[in-house]
Amino acid sequence: xxxxxxxxxxxKHTVSINTDVLKKIQRSVNKKINNLRAQGKLTRASLPTIIxxxxxxxxxxxxxxxxxxxxxxxxxxxxxxxxxxALWVENGGADGGGYISSTRSFAEIEAGSTITFxxxxxxxxxxxAGASDGAFxxxxxxxxxxxxxxxxxxxxxxxVTFGARFSSPFNFPGGLGYVFKPVMPNTWTTLEFxxxxxxxxFVSFEGQSFEAVFSNVGHIQILTSVPDGxxxxxxxxxxxxxxxxxxxxxxxxxSLLLIGGSALLFLRRRRS
Length: 272
Hints:
The protein is an alpha+beta fold and 272 residues long. The chain has two domains: 10-63 and 253-271; 66-248, Galactose-binding domain-like (Jelly Rolls), CATH 2.60.120. The chain contains five helices and 13 strands. It has helices at 19-38, 47-61, 106-111, 210-214, 254-271; strands at residues 10-15, 64-69, 79-80, 87-89, 99-105, 115-120, 145-154, 162-167, 174-178, 189-194, 202-204, 219-224, 236-248. A hairpin with a 6-residue loop joins strand 8 (162-167) and strand 9 (174-178).
């Protein structure tokens, strides 16, 4: 994945705890193990409690990184339905800054594509690596991407259901997901898609597997559905997008395994 944060259009936030804090947590857990051992209470029954306590501590230890496209300077090479550069609006976004916009009717959506915004690997400028300089391209499984989110808004006369499709650079296979709670008009609303194979929001992997889709992400497409009764409505509707982003949460570090291993070692020594 090209998580390029040199471009100021991308905000990177990393929350991490330094090694000293990790060592302090490890010392605390080891002290607990030694106390239980001295009291003769270190048993297999107590082991899950120890591991759970340390696992909770790791929520503070493991790094959490988010990458968010703010659109504060331009459209960041994102496209619209017609694969043309999306309209950029300088201010008024979900966070007050820039955002991108597209105008289309429900009749057009019904007759054509539900894709309203495109973040592709090949758009549009030859000196760029696609949307957001390719920041979202890559193996989301190996990179441990756990969440995709985006803020959307529309001015339709009825609530609208939004979705997202994630696909390879060849546009197949793709993972199709929907946020089933409709978005109300004229309100910035955050959509969230947990990136995991058991998320019920994903209604299709187009005959492939979760791993096949998310091990080679090249396209992100934001979808809009047509509300019941508006299928042939020709009135123009404005759709807005801001802050598409991903969250990377690595699996708990090997420290958890070390603590569990230490406890098992103490048990074995005690038995011997």
